[in-house]
Amino acid sequence: MSSTSTSPKAASTAPWKASFLEHISKMPSPEFVLSTLHPTSMTVSSSTSSNPAPTEYLPRARYCIYRGMWGELPENKHNEAEQNDRVYESEMPTFTSDVRMAKIEEIFATGKGRGGKGECQGSGGGGPVEATWWVKETGTQWRISGKAFVVGEDIEGEDSKTEGYEQGGKESSGVRTVKSEVGGAMRVKEGMEGKVGDWSWQRELTAHFGNNSPGIRASFKAPPPGTPVSAPLPNKDLALGLKVTDLHDPIARANFRVVVIKPEEVEQLEISDPAKARRFKYSYVGGEEMWKTEELWP
């Protein structure tokens, strides 16, 4: 596992994780609403005195599917991809996305590096997001806010021609950011210290791709999302209704991304019984304490 700084194995599990996973497991489909910030500069020209932009950012929200915590991809008998041993554990929810979708550029454009359209083709990001689950089965709302990081094909490799790698095979700043931020929040599981060197970012990425059905994998070979159907396609091989069985399909994999949310604040609102409603806020503080728990009025 190259260029990764992980948390000490003694670091404790977040106090909200067990309840969160238990509740999510009761959902027929673990859907959540992902909110991002959309810079107006992505859709309108620079402000002018005659037509100033009303605000710097606009809210954007859409449904996504929760794909497990990073490093803890759920077992799937239909997943034929080689998988890492369970060396690590974390409290970082994941979802998959197409690099051509606006949310990827938003995650880059609102991050510390303010990456543009060119930078968002590789790994990196760090923009603020909020993910919200409504678990009807338990009467609980979960909100997780933090920074989102994108894992792409450039996350691992020695080829200097690989996108995301600088001349000479050095990792790009985006790759280094992901391995530092995400890797720093991964904990080595007890008894797995000897297998740390065998864990691979690229293998984890491919396992996430394999975790999707052939039909979902083929969505990454669909025409560019959000573009007019009247416009000519950039590639004649792009189409709807395909099936992808090749785990290394070059077109699908070029567009496939895993997004990792690194939580900074988690809120749990239990309202199944209005007379006994409870609300908890968990704030990441780092250090030995790691998480601060505070109960609030619902």
Total beta-strand segments:
12
Gross morphology? globular
Radius of gyration: 20 Å
Q: What do the pLDDT scores average to?
A: 91
Distance between the termini: 43 Å
How helical, in percent, are the residues?
10-25%
Beta-strand content estimate: 25-35%
Q: Please identify the structural class as seen in this structure.
A: alpha+beta
Question: pLDDT below 50 for ≥5 consecutive residues: which ranges?
Answer: 159-168
Number of helices: 6
Largest β-sheet summary: 8 strands, antiparallel
Helix/strand order, N-terminal first? HEEEEHEEEEHEHHHEEE
Characterise the protein shown here.
The protein has 298 residues and is α+β, with helices and mostly antiparallel strands. It has six helices and twelve strands. Mean pLDDT is 91; it is low at 159-168.
